[in-house]
Design brief:
CATH architecture of chain A: Alpha-Beta Complex
CATH superfamily of chain A: ComB-like
Number of strands of chain A: 11
CATH topology of chain A: putative 2-phosphosulfolactate phosphatase
CATH class of chain A: Alpha Beta
Number of helices of chain A: 10
Oligomer: homodimer
Number of domains of chain A: 1
Helix content of chain A: 25-40%
Structural class of chain A: alpha/beta
């Protein structure tokens, strides 16, 4: 049976062997929710970069560019980190360079994996179905907050483990902790997430609507995946799309 | 108000500022449970060392020495990592050099703290009372397992946070997660810990009795504390002992 593990922060990813595995990168508030939203709304590709400088230099080359630090849109960029800003029709078919405090680091730390995909509540079931139908072991890599674990990514990791539990083995304590926490919180995810330090930080920035949006399950049947260091939407074969529609 | 935080593994301790804080080192199975048991049974002091080599060289100098790696007693030492081996009357007044897979690393990583103390279920209330009655912020440092978090240390961290919650602020997600997990598990700590990967590993080594022993709350009113790089029993003033007896 395939194995699934949860890594709570990119600071710990070196303790895991990502080779030959699928890494699901998770940054619920808000990087991976934005990436999912962008792909669902027709953005062609996203270039994740680690630093503001790299992101700015891609902007100078003519790309649209999005940069967030400490929960705020950085000065001099086209887009920030609100999922609503990725719904604009003018973005259809475009490529966007993105850097965020935690999310893009998680992606750049996963490049040795067999495959890197992007998960969020917004595409939860389509990701779960994909993991079940592919052959590799899986690591769910939470972006966390500045090296530490956070509640919202842990809850999503737990939700994903719970959704695939019949098809995977999972023995590591971190994985069991994520699943336990999800099972405590699942009837009131928003209430539970409201306790998190990140949400308290973000609430100060008046983004209740963003948070509410990012916690909705299954509104977008897309999976952003890394291909040659750029995120593009995964193409599903016919059979797979049918399975997902029936889920 | 004082602040309390939980760090789930020594791999993340560099993200915390331990200076001017009390660090409570936790390695429930079994290093800090053994240290608590040893002090309660009259061992005079414990020298925590990081490596088997250092431990062996102290043994050559005439100290009793205890070494554990991967849950087993290492060859050529006097004691292993079972709390029962620290109850022997012949150990009274002795100094023991100790190295363990995870626990001693947590101690050596905390040396910049204002104070380092040892916590376990066995001395839970006396530690909680001490934290309430001293003036500094607190970090609970879980030893985890080979760099990753584990269930039993997380549950104890949650129990300790819960016990002092009226006297401390705690806002970090890791701290909230530990407390939530403890509140789910508290009516059946043993059942919850039985799920952990470490316990599965240890069960293979036939140490059910050790595990059962280490999960007992409040059987020893002692606090091992680091003093000049050596663990000794904290001395309480009269008032404090009374408070603890009434707890």
């Amino acid at each position: 049976m395939k194995k699934i593990e949860v890594c709570f922060t990119p600071s710990l990813i070196d303790l895991y062997n990502v080779e030959k595995k699928v890494v699901v990168v998770v940054d619920i508030l808000r990087a991976t929710s934005c990436m999912t939203t962008a792909m669902a709304n027709g953005v062609k590709s996203i270039i994740p970069v680690a630093t503001i400088e790299e992101c700015f230099s891609l902007r100078k080359k003519g790309f649209l560019a999005a940069a967030e630090r400490d929960g705020k849109m950085a000065d001099g960029f086209d887009l920030g980190n609100s999922p609503f800003s990725y719904m604009d029709k003018s973005l259809k078919g475009k490529t966007i360079a993105v850097t965020t405090t935690n999310g893009t680091l998680a992606i750049t730390k996963s490049k040795k994996a067999a495959q890197v995909i992007v998960g969020s509540f917004l595409n939860q079931s389509v990701v779960a179905n994909y993991l079940i139908n592919q052959p590799n072991d899986v690591i769910i890599l939470c972006a966390g907050w500045k090296g530490k674990m956070n509640i919202e990514d842990t809850l999503f990791a737990g939700a994903l483990v719970d959704a695939v539990k019949d098809e995977f083995t999972f023995e590591e304590d971190a994985t069991l902790i994520a699943q336990s926490l999800y099972n405590v919180a699942k009837d009131d995810i928003a209430g539970f997430v409201a306790k998190s330090s990140h949400v308290k930080r973000l609430n100060k920035l008046n983004i209740h609507k963003d948070i509410e949006f990012c916690l909705q399950p299954d509104i977008y049947p897309v999976i952003p995946m890394l291909k040659d260091d750029v995120l593009v939407a995964m193409e599903f074969d016919y059979e797979y799309v049918i399975k997902n529609d029936n889920a």
